[in-house]
Every structure is written in C-alpha cells, then in structure tokens.
Amino acid sequence: MAALLEVRGLRAGFDTDTGYIEVLDGVSFELAAGETLGLVGESGCGKSVSALSVMNLLPQPAGKITAGSIGFQNRDLVTLPKEEFHDVRGNRISMIFQEPMTALNPVHRVGNQIIEAVKLHEPNLSSAIARRRALEMLERVGIPAPDQRLKEYPHQLSGGMRQRVMIAMALTMQPDLLIADEPTTALDVTIQAQILDLLREMQRESGMAILFITHDLGVIAELCDRVTVMYAGCVVEQATVTQLFSTPRHPYTQGLLRSIPRLDATPKQPLTTIPGTVPALIDMPAGCRFRNRCLNAEDDCELRSPDLIHAAGRQIACHHPVAEVMP
Amino acid sequence: MKESLLQVRGLKKYFPVRGGVFLRRIGNVQAVEEVSFSVERGKTLGLVGESGCGKSTVGQTILKLHKPTAGEIFYEGQDIAAMNRAELKAFRRDVQIIFQDPFESLNARHTVSRILEEPFVIHEMGTAAERRRWAGDLLNRVGLQVDALDRFPHEFSGGQRQRIGIARAIALKPKLVVCDEAVSALDVSIQSQVINLLMDLQREMNLALIFIAHDLAVVKHVSDDIAVMYLGKIVEQADAQEIYAFPRHPYTKALLSAIPIPDPSRRGERIILSGDVPSPIHPPNGCRFHTRCPHAVDQCRSVEPTEELVNEGHRVACHFWNELADRNAVG
Lengths: 327, 331
Known about the structure:
The structure holds two protein chains of two kinds. By secondary structure, chain A is α/β, with parallel strands linked by helices.
C-alpha cells in the first residue's frame, strides 16, 4: 500500500508552567489515497493533537513535536520549512473542525470568507471568478439559495449550514487529504446524517482521503474503511473497520465496544464498563498505560510498554490481546 | 386506575422575544406547545428530540423553574401551581434534577461536603455531625471515597463530578429525578458507569426518572416509556420497546434511522431528512414537521394533526400514520 500520509513514532507535547507534558507517546498510523481512516478515542487521548501536528497547527509557542516523522507526498511535514508548508496546508490538506462557529469569522460575510480562501491560493484569479467558484462550492455542498447565503454572516446560519460552509471552504482547493476533527459532534443526529452523507459524496467525486477524528464508534462504523484506536497518547489497535468491530483484539477496544448502549440490547440491563478512569497526563503509569483498567493485565504489563506489532492484517499494542475467536 | 406520580396536561410554555427601543414583546418562542404525559412511580420516561425541541424546558417547568404559560402539572394528584409554602417545600424535596454539565452545576467555591450538606441544611435536617456523616454515606453510595468531602469540584474528573451531582440529587430521597442530558458530556467508558449507577439507584430507591437526552440508544436502554418531541410538541409516545420496533411517526422513523449503528455490516439505507428544524418563533402551520416530512401533502400544511391512539399506550400525532404503516408493510 502506497501511503498518502505516514505518521511514524510521533511524539508531541506542551510546555506548561509546571514543565513539559507529553501528549503523544510515539503515535504511528498511515492513510492511503482515497481512503477514510477513523481516529477514535476518549477525551484527552491525543487524537486532536495528532491531527493538529499533521497540519502544523499545534498552539504556539507551547506546543512542539519532539520526535517522529509525518510523511506526506514524499515530504516530511515535521521538518518542512514554514514557507513550503503553505503549499501543503489548505492546498493539499484541508481541515474542518467541531464547532464551525468558532472556525468562521463572525464579522465577515460567509461569501467573502470563501472568496478569501480561494484567492489566497490562486492570487491571480479575478474577483468575479473567485465569487463564482465560491457560489459553485456552496451549491455542491447542498446549501439552498447559495446566492443569498453568500451575503449572510455566520450567525445567521444554522449549525448544519455552518458546517456545510466549512466543508465548502475546505474543498475549494480540491485537497488530497481532508482532516475532519469531530465535525458532527455538535450537530443533531438528523443533521449529522446529512453531513456524513455529504462527506461520502464529496469523497466519491474527488477521490480525496479523509482522516476522521471522533469519539463516536457509530460514526466510525458508518463512514470509515480502517480505524486507529488511541488511548492515553498511544495507538493501541489499528484494523479494518470490519475486523475491529467483529473481533476487537485490544482489551481497551473490546471494553469500549461493549460499553456502548445498543438499540438491539436488552434494556435496563447493566452495561459493561471499563473500571476506573483515564490516567492524568502528568501521572502516566509505567509500562502499558491501560494496565490499571485492564482485565487481562499481568506482571509484564508493568515492566515494559507494548510495541505496536503487526498481527494477522492488523496492528495491536498489547502483551495479552483478546483471543481472535469470539464466542 | 392508580394515580400517576406526575401528570402533565396540555403544558404550554412561551418565552417572550423582545425588540425595539422599549424592549416590547414582539413575538414568542413557542418552546413547549400542548404537551401531555405521565410518569409512573419507579419508572423511567425518556424524552428525546433534537436541539430546540423543548425537552429541557419541559423538564425545567416540572421543577417549577419556569411558570407555565398554560396547562397543568399534577404531582401525586396535586396541582403544583396551587401548592402552599409547606406543600411546595415537600414537593421540592421529592423532585430533583441532574444537569448536563457537571462543571457548571457545582459551585466551584464550595467543598464537596458543603455541596452535599446543603440540601439537609435547607430542609433543617440533622445536626452538623449527622449531616457530614450523611454526606459521606452519599459519596459511598455513588462510588466515591469519603476523603472527597473536603475537596473542591475542580479536583475531580467529569465522571466523578457527575457522581457528585447525582449524590446531591438523591440526598433527600426524592421520588422523581429529572436527568437533563446527564450523561451526554461523558466519554463512553464513563457514561456506561454513570448509567449503571442511575439504574441501580432507581431500583433501590424506587425512583422515577425523566431522562432527557438526544442520544436515542442511551434513552432506549434506560427507559420504560419514550416520548419523541419535535418543535415543542410530542409527536409520538409509547413503550420503549414498541417505539423502537414499530415507530409510526415519520419523524421518529427518520430519527431512529439517523443513528449511526456501531456495526459496519449494518451500514445501510438511511432516511435522510432535508433541511433544518424551523424556528420555534414562527413554527410552520399545520403539522410542524411538514417542511421536512417526505410524505407531506396539502392536508399536513394546513391541518394540525391530533394525537391518535395506535394501541394501548401508543399515541402518535400524524394524519397518515395508518396509511404509512400499510405502505411499509406492502413495500
């Protein structure tokens, strides 16, 4: 598989008043052209920091990448000079965020913001053509009366409409990779269904790859080809979506899948839980970071942290994975 | 027929929209429109719908946090609008609420012991030593250690804070707890812990719950009955099993089919509704759902549907629920 994006051993973190705190502890994943990879995990597991690292958007000056590489189209994004990054970000890789209200500028008309994005990347375009391109994009993402919408301000649009505008803006440059960081989390389910449908359609048309970050396993099952599961700054399992949901091998993945209330489950029965809580970043246990909550944990889990190893078409970081065959 | 713990009849709540120089009332947000339901002792009613459908307003109005514009709420057969001071105090002991955001609903300047003892202080129960012991018991009950008593809310994680919120809600042994998106802000592994805790408490204390949430899988798991709201109205209500197996209202069907199922082999045909929920300031005429309904005809645009009985306990407000059911059966 020729990878479009190849993240290897990425370590990143933040300088704080109390010292450097590491958030990513050697994260690796890859993404092929045209593929949809889901990055899933609970709050604080480092999925958004991974995405921001790819975009070179870690908050400055606190955030920094300390080790690892991010290969993208024969370039290493970690060492890429700032000027050259301009060609990657926006042109080749675009990003959409959870809360489109904070991603859009509230004092500028929607149209001008899209036109600005178009012109930034193609400075020689006339205003009329840039405007027409913006209009076309709004039409493509299914915004009714786009002519009217161009003149409106972000607060005049609903949450779903705003996310459509963000998608329109992200896709104007026909990127090879779209990073979507919880793009539907703030939306209602019926609107979420619309946006997921739209992303699928846009991908079919353009052939772009999508890195989809979410905590919602339902959305992953719905949209993704492969899944990377993160826990406390590490990748714990990586598999195709079918493998992961039918035979999760890492105890954390299994616990996560079992904790979700399901529509077809017997109601009012106690749900399976993962005991305890995620350890704090400043107080990570030695060895495997999941061992305090793990039912399979043994002595060796404390001694050394498990590497992400290839096993039967997937990758797992666990000394004592769940047996492949599920009863 | 035995008396319901809580009965809501024709509840209506409008909020004024003010404008102009003198901030005169220029319109109304019709947050809740003619809502009726009842809650039985020890049972859970799930209230679901999308943002702005009025589900939280219903919950808050039951607690008397809002004065209803019209309609009646009966608690143990008594109209809560007509209660005197003593009756109200008893009512407020019996009916509690848990909020979505445990970061905002606990006073950051108070220790956990002060937060948990406050209900006893207000209701003049026990001595200081007793109150502290009770607070410790409550913490144990929700799965926290007694040493948490002298700490502040910010020292806890989201899940632990929600447990403190639950401890406060059950302090006075209530009969009804309104859970307003109580688990929505929590991660899945923590969410399942809190849901289990709520179900345990319900069994032990014979608590009735009104479970307000937008996550339908969670609501189905905890509820006995479910009411689906759209733009201030209940469009369908039934037994939880029934409504998931045989949804009648086109909105319920679309809502159910829009939930992403955590099983890639069931990636399938979704009913995708077009457009957004209309503004509750100017709700559509006729059936409020007609602007997004795939089956809407002229009648839906002019005539508002009334609630019809599908079978005992299953009510739906749609002109064509019967025909749609037949059509589905044939197709």
